[in-house]
Design the sequence.
């Protein structure tokens, strides 16, 4: 967005807010003009509670997650009043925190309870629950030694996502991918991901595909990628250098149903070369809010026949059914008031 024009820079004066109430009034002006609030509720361990006013859904500028990127995050889906795969995402969240050397201000059971209570307070029945662990506020140095405690934040976002049935175009990313340490840790340092997404959009594509230094298929900017071979096998890249997506792992658990039906011949993870991947019969992104997005063209060349694949949609149906009616181990009913 371009900066507002100023007729005479020397005459421009920055407004000084005289009080917190004046500032809050200004913040409310912004949100009062919004037809539908995108954020239902937020939790902040700095505030020590749940916030329902979007004007107050803020974090301190001296939080090390803000100015040093020292933080991790994760996301769970809210569908029909249920939290999907909350425990799987929370476990990965804490593994990421351990790798980032961030200690949680609460034990896992309390984090889980906060997230459930936050979702209930939001009254959101469809959307996403996003949450972060930060080294915490304290100063602007590199080391978090000056931070009194780590911080936990979470927000509920109203999102009307739906099953993806249209195919998209992708490109091979020229942006260097993260090293395995950072790629397997779901941390807030997403600049490579952002640039990779922008790179694709600038070329008229939806997103991109990363190739590792050995020439094997890695992942998309915030999603896993999967393929159907001409031999009708579902193949996902191995997870040793990329993030092990919760949805991708669930797909590997559900896909054998199609093997039993005779529609798939097998399910596996493997190192795939670019030639093998581009020669696949079908291709898809796999991620929480998709949960599957068909890919029909890569670097201006069609995947398979250039149409959304039958098996891609069958896998998508499996995941959507699991999200909507799956077992209690995967779906947690939110206790709305």
Sequence:
């Amino acid at each position: 967005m371009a900066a507002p024009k100023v007729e005479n820079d020397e005459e421009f004066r920055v407004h000084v807010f005289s009080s917190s109430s004046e500032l809050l009034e200004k913040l409310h002006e912004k949100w009062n003009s919004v037809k539908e609030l995108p954020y239902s509720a937020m939790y902040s361990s700095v505030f020590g509670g749940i916030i329902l006013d979007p004007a107050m859904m803020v974090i301190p500028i001296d939080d090390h997650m803000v100015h040093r990127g020292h933080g991790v995050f994760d996301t769970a889906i809210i569908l029909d009043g249920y939290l999907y795969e909350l425990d799987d995402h929370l476990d990965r969240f804490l593994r990421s925190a351990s790798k980032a050397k961030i200690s949680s201000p609460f034990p896992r059971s309390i984090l889980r309870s906060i997230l459930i209570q936050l979702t209930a307070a939001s009254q959101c029945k469809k959307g996403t629950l996003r949450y972060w662990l930060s080294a915490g506020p304290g100063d602007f140095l590199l080391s978090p030694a000056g931070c009194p405690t780590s911080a936990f934040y979470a927000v509920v976002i109203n999102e009307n996502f739906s099953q993806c049935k249209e195919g998209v175009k992708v490109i091979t990313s020229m942006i260097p991918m993260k090293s395995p340490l950072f790629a397997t840790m779901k941390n807030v340092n997403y600049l490579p991901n952002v640039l990779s997404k922008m790179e694709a959009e600038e070329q008229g594509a939806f997103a991109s595909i990363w190739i590792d230094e050995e020439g094997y298929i890695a992942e998309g900017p915030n999603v896993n990628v999967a393929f159907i071979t001409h031999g009708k096998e579902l193949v996902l890249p191995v997870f040793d250098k990329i993030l092990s997506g919760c949805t991708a792992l669930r797909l590997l658990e559900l896909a054998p149903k199609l093997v039993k039906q005779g529609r798939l011949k097998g399910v596996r993870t493997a190192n795939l070369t670019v030639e093998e991947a581009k020669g696949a019969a079908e291709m898809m992104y796999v991620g929480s809010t998709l949960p599957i997005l068909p890919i029909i063209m890569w670097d201006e060349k069609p995947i398979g026949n250039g149409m959304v694949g039958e098996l891609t949609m069958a896998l998508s149906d499996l995941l959507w059914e699991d999200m909507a009616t799956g077992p209690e181990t995967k779906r947690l009913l939110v206790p709305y008031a």
